[in-house]
Amino acid sequence: MKSPNFKIILWIILFLLHSGHSPISAQQMDVPARIQAAMYAKIFKYVPQLRDLKTIRLLVVTPTISNMDTKDFIKAFEQTDIKILTCTPTQFEKEIQNSDVIYFMPKTESYTDLCKKYKKLSITGIKKYTQEGRISLALSLVSDKPRLFVNIESLKSENFSISADILRLAQLY
Amino acid sequence: MYKYLIITFFVLIAFQSIHGQSDDVYQDMSLEELFDVEVVVSASKKPEDLFEAPLSVTIIKRQDIINAGATSLPEALRLAPGLIIREQTPGNYDIHIRGFDEATQSFILPTPTNSIMLVMIDNRVVYNYFAGGTFWETLPIDISDIERIEVVRGPASALYGPNAAAGVINFITNKPEKNGTNIHTNTYFGSNNTKTTNGYLGYKWNDRAVFGLSGNYSYMHRFDRDYFAWKDQKYLPLQDMSTLFYYGENPETGQPHKLYETDDTPHFNVNRALDKYGLNFYFDYNLAFDTKTELAAGYQLAKNQKVYYNNFSTPLSDYRSQSRYLDFKVRHKNLYGQISAIDGVHDNNFFWNSYLFQTFDGILEYNLQFKGLNIRPGLSHRRALYSGHLISDEIMTPLNNLKDLAKRRLCTSAFSVLADYHPTTKIRLISGFRADKYNIYNKLSLTYETALTYRFNKTNLGRIVFSKANRAPFMLDSYIGKQVGVLVWVDIGEGFPGLLRFLPNRDVNYLSNYTFETGWRYKPTFKIELDVELFSSLLDDLIEMRTTGVGIDSTTYPGTVFVDYKTFRNSESQQAWQNGLCFSLGYKLNQKLKTRLYGMIQHTEKMIDRSVIEEEIKVSYSALGQQPTRAELDSLVDAWSDTSTPTPKFFGGFVIQYNPKQYMHFNINAYFMSSQTYRGVNVVDNYSQKIPGYLLLNAKTTFDLTKAVSIHGSVRNILGKHREYGFSDKLDRLYLLGFTLNPS
After folding, report:
1. Chain centroid, CA B633 distance in Å
2. Is B334 on the interface with A (CB under 8 A)?
3. DSSP for residue B23
4. Any bridge partners for residue B186, and if so which?
5. pLDDT tens sequence across B507-538
6. Which residue in A has a C-alpha nearest to residue B442's C-alpha?
7. What CATH number should be reported for the domain holding residue A155?
8. How many domains does chain B have?
């Protein structure tokens, strides 16, 4: 067989690097989007403030709406009964009032205080934000299985509560 | 049959597409079921539901290992289906994925030895490039370092690199979960001088940095004291053992010299089976939110007796290995880079088998994401430098210092692409391709893998995989020295000694494994989980050490010497087919009682071209000026055409975990194997040893004294004496007591 033309391979790599969309820090969210969407849709039924809503409006705050991770999230939540909205951090304060729950993608954590101000439930796929008290609920892995992380103080400051049935399964901060 | 399976698979997909439930199966699951989904980063290199993994994957967690009472990582692998685990001497193992034991056998490695399985620690390849394979005692880590073990069955070179021709075992080390200090230790003491302890101390600073330090120590005695003697073909005390080397006769006895009467008498530590320790250091630091670095370094020292390189006297040799490693990884957004290096020495009590080694690996990958499609191109480079007597052109003598011998080099540069496509939430297509260019081989080595999965509903997943994987060149194949020759007793009717001369050969095709498999996963309830795979594999381009010419030498040595020139070459006469079924059935009655039964049934058939063997026999006869008769030829071809394979027809195990109280745990586990026939290839004689089927039964009881302290007692190999590996030791019952500390 003829030796490979490494110049061609290099061009292919450069083309792929140039044309690909880079997801933001995919490694930080260890629970796949589809599993998170299905879990949050069910967890909301244990949140008294959301339980009776006809349609829950979930706002995804993301640095780039065209980002593929965000698109995956939107696609995953579209499988549920939840209405999905998206915005960038600069649009966030304007959009927050038209939503019930806010999902924070990576690199948007500096805007989480608005949830406390407007009393909206903050959720994420990054455990660290919940540990730090920035966000009330997070889904992350413990021993390879999804676990719910709840920051009680943050939850209270957003005027939300959650059923003891769920708290029993969650790790609390 | 596979044609019909594929058609059935696609018909089911079509039917389900019309009559399926909701688009995403996770929507049909209860919250309890979702909390039970197992997420791993494995073949696709991104988090995924284990149930949807495209390849045949098993995960063994650290807690499963501790529950089962396994005292080492190789022993823990008995908990995975499709793995053949044989203990050669206490604590020393021979491990194969699915089988194909015969892939490496040669004069240098006279018993079946595995070189077609890739072992990694956190994606750092741990592989011996001298003659292939993994030296399990040289792993610097132990149970306390482990978060989980991922076992991938089937060819996976396109995803993991060369030598993953039969599969991959990846040890994933643990990271502290809690902020602050994290400690755990596990210790056993027992009969037959068994001592094993391992511990981990880690500290975590607010998800910013993690520091870890671990250490392990193991010591085990042999149960036997005798050795199998190749020349005498029976087990003998060391002082009574002869050798295949030609040293002439002892004038007092008129018999060939004993091993202990030779000029370079080797030292055996008769009692010691294994004596090893390892130290590891870990430091992970998150430079920024999306920039993470991981550094690991370590050292190991091991002394053991196991079966590997030929010493022309007995299958067991006394080994001493020492190595240190460094591994650095960086992830920045979607860019992944890893560099690792290892250097050390493998000493053998037969001096010519010793060598020094250095290996350097570099990997760069980038993850691209398009709509429903992930593409991961990657570049990698490996450089292995070895210096040893067998791969040197110097005359073999113990006076030669290993450091002064020429360094031999094997390099591989590779380009790989992995594509992961989700056209819908139910269908997934994953495809990998890799091209390796070796420095000593003038062709590209191409490997590929394609897997299609279809999730029918939340309880059923079907998958099909087609893959090709390769073995890489080894030092021995490529660089065996010009002066390497062995003067041995050869009984060809003339009663004079023979000289074996070995020649390197770089113009060969390296072994390939082509595999097609179908799999089905079924999880109807929380309680039941079934994973079945059906596969068919062709092992092609086997490399053997074969005679290329013969002659008579009456000048170099006193008397007449029969010279047999041998080289590594493709045995066009031999391919091997394997068909098999592997299964794992888990049943969880409740939180107190969990069971799992697993096993593999397989049939391997070696295909031999008799005409190639006939030619070889004719060459040997012509050197003596003779010509074999048809009857002699047929009889010799029959004798040389060994179609037997040491891979057992059935092997598997079961685990029963019972926790009657929160503080009390019982575990019974077993590993069983049907009979095996071992053939040792040594000089001109073939030896065979039949090992009857056996059941290895273990039991362990654990009491939690406090949340942090547990004590445990276990009996390993309850049914007592049996042999697991050809021409090696018998193993006996072991009583162990120990404790586990987990104060963090």
Report:
1. 38
2. yes
3. S
4. B198, B740
5. 888 889 999 999 999 999 889 999 999 999 99
6. A3
7. 3.40.50.2300
8. 1
